[in-house]
Design goal:
The chain has 179 residues and is of the alpha+beta class. The chain folds into 2 domains: 34 residues; 141 residues, no CATH class. The protein is built from 11 helices and 4 strands, in the order ααααβββαααβαααα. The protein has a 4-stranded mixed β-sheet. Strand 1 and strand 2 form a beta hairpin.
């Protein structure tokens, strides 16, 4: 990139910071021209995205006041540990540009597996997701995890733990009736 290209790009950034109106298409085109990642072929970008977003177990944690954060563990981690990575760090890649967001927005939900340590918290976290992501997460859950989420619903409705466990996914399907 030569000095003129840097100057043009910096001018657009300065205008954005000053709150001046900047044509979104101009910014998008500049991102495509100057971003080393976006200049790569799509197949190579997809491999990079896979390494960033896949091969992790996502563990939603409730922090109160409706705030959820997701920790990640590598598949080799067998126990809970306070040093789990915060999943919000890899997600920052989805905020880099409009094109990268379009390419990566659903990948974290689509490529990972999930820990359901606390079914009620997990269910509440799922309900906080938009429908498309919720469907992707639901598809990644095992039948056992789906039943656990459904059982959490039954407990809230007064189901006694002394009764037989339901073997169908019906309670969970009712919970996520918009799936």
């Amino acid at each position: 990139m030569d000095k003129q290209e840097f100057a043009q790009r910096d001018k657009g950034e300065a205008m954005k910071q000053q709150g001046k109106q900047v044509d979104i298409n101009t910014i998008t085109l500049a991102d495509q021209q100057y971003s080393p990642l976006l200049r790569l072929p799509a197949e190579l970008r997809n491999k990079i995205y896979f390494f960033v977003f896949a091969t992790q177990k996502i563990d939603p944690v409730y922090y109160g006041s409706g705030i959820f954060r997701c920790r990640t563990t590598s598949p080799n981690t067998l126990t809970s540990h306070p040093d789990h990575d915060d999943f919000n760090s890899p997600l920052s890649l989805t905020q880099v540009s409009r094109q990268i967001r379009a390419e990566t927005q659903m990948l974290p939900a689509k490529l990972n597996s999930y820990l359901v340590r606390h079914p009620r918290i997990f269910r509440d976290w799922m309900l906080s997701l938009d429908k498309e992501k919720r469907v992707l997460v639901w598809e990644r859950l095992s039948a056992r995890q789906r039943r656990a989420i459904g059982i959490g619903v039954l407990w809230e409705r007064g189901w006694s733990s002394g009764g037989a466990l339901p073997v169908s996914n019906e309670p969970a399907v009712k919970l996520f009736s918009d799936l």
